[in-house]
Write a structure and sequence with these properties.
Length: 193
């Protein structure tokens, strides 16, 4: 078998990162390299041609997923004519929807990766990247006039409400309580602000 061109190697790496981003959000970072590479349509050995370790992949995927999520919010901000309140309302509506609850693979990496990142040592790059992503999302959710750093207290409260409600709704999925959690959090966030 011949060598893979640089363009093909870059495409393979992108495919692994994209596949891992979805699988990690859906199943957690404990997904095996073999299962990941199978899902990406590549051989297990090809992984080590692209990444130094699974930890390096987790670092890259976390940054990729958070960047992707931030770009999505920036697009919504532009679609709302730069109106922060309207963009935030769109985010709240989408975040606390049954569609988001039911599709973790395409959903918020802050919620999906929280438990896995919490188990990582504090000196790991993934912790720094994740913490920065949380701070940026809180800042995005803060009112335009919020005091304090990293989004102010209100941005943090909104983020905690969104993430907590999503996680509890996923954990109780299949029961009426799941939808009640989403509705209660939505009401709390939209009637308060």
């Amino acid at each position: 078998m011949g060598r893979v061109s640089q363009a093909q190697a870059e495409e393979n790496r992108r495919r692994v990162v994209d596949t891992a981003s979805r699988l990690f959000r859906e199943q957690g970072t404990h997904v095996s390299v073999a299962d990941l590479m199978k899902a990406a349509g590549l051989t297990h050995g090809a992984f080590y041609k692209q990444f130094a370790s699974k930890e390096a992949l987790v670092d890259e995927v976390t940054a990729h997923a958070l960047d992707e999520w931030a770009r999505c919010h920036a697009a919504h901000f532009e679609q709302n004519g730069g109106r922060r309140d309207a963009a935030q309302r769109d985010l709240i509506d989408a975040y606390l929807s049954s569609e988001h609850r039911d599709n973790a693979a395409d959903g918020c990496p802050v919620a999906a990766l929280a438990a896995d990142v919490a188990r990582e040592p504090e000196d790991r790059e993934v912790r720094r990247t994740y913490t920065q992503g949380v701070a940026e999302l809180a800042a995005y959710l803060a009112p335009a006039d919020a005091p304090g750093g990293e989004g102010g207290e209100e941005g943090l409260v909104r983020l905690c409400t969104l993430v907590g409600a999503l996680l509890l709704s996923r954990a109780t999925q299949g029961s009426p309580l799941s939808d009640e959690i989403l509705a209660a959090a939505h009401t709390a966030l939209t009637e308060a602000g």
